[in-house]
Prior knowledge:
The structure is a homodimer. Helices cover 56% and strands 10% of the residues of chain A.
Amino acid sequence: xxxxxxxxxxxxxxxxxxxxxxxxxxxxxxxxxxxxxxxxxxxxxxxxxxxxxxxxxxxxxxxxxxxxxxxxxxxxxxxxxxxxxxxxxxxxxxxxxxxxxxxxxxxxxxxxxxxxxxxxxxxxxxxxxxxxxxx
Amino acid sequence: xxxxxxxxxxxxxxxxxxxxxxxxxxxxxxxxxxxxxxxxxxxxxxxxxxxxxxxxxxxxxxxxxxxxxxxxxxxxxxxxxxxxxxxxxxxxxxxxxxxxxxxxxxxxxxxxxxxxxxxxxxxxxxxxxxxxxxx
DNA sequence: ATGTATTTCCTACAAATGTAGGAATTGCAA
DNA sequence: TTGCAATTCCTACATTTGTAGGAAATACAT
Lengths: 135, 135
């Protein structure tokens, strides 16, 4: 017997709030997952000043927040994302546009291009992206 | 006698870090300045839940941070921005792109359009913005 | 079996942020 | 001139964030 009405079974859990420093970590893990603690540390050690302990803290906060899970592998942890990268990225974009531009994309683009001169090639790339969305 | 070398006399003071809630206030003040405390409260009271006290706190924090000045007018304060809106907006944009998109604009635009379907007119507007930047 | 190097677990702490409350002051109406 | 309503001044407090340190556990080498 087919179910009626109740289309969406799982309520969407709200995305965890990912802080600035945490984004740095999430981006690594979205790129490469599963990934061990020490691999995360290695991936970051040339780009960021952080002590390993700092990275450990960020990892466990991300687990608490429900952004990551981990499984024990020997004595290390293997992390993987629990939240979808594109979803988080879009949330962050929306939130930024809302905060700064009252939610509108066009003023962002206009203001940005006003300040940062892009090369002809870069402009062309943006135009191609728009063309892809051509109705 | 013309001055040599030392082109930039004033060192650029770093922009104050404006929080999420504070952006709401700054946007009002950039729109309408000088503006009194009670006017700010009024401007926000229909859009936001905040108690007036909360807004007062935000205003004084923004003064502390050097984002606003005020002058006494009777017993009220009249506020005006000390930081340039476009400058702050651009800083925020850069910071967002750095955090989420490793600083790149194109992936932002592509991802955003993937998620949010814009109308033909909106796309056209974006294209016009790009055309304005045509070399 | 045991020491050791590694890794996790728990704790810390200052600054920033959201969200106000109460006390003090003061311009103005009566 | 005096009381009041409005406004500012100072304080508060829980969370989140950046940034770790030390203690405890444990896998593995010898």
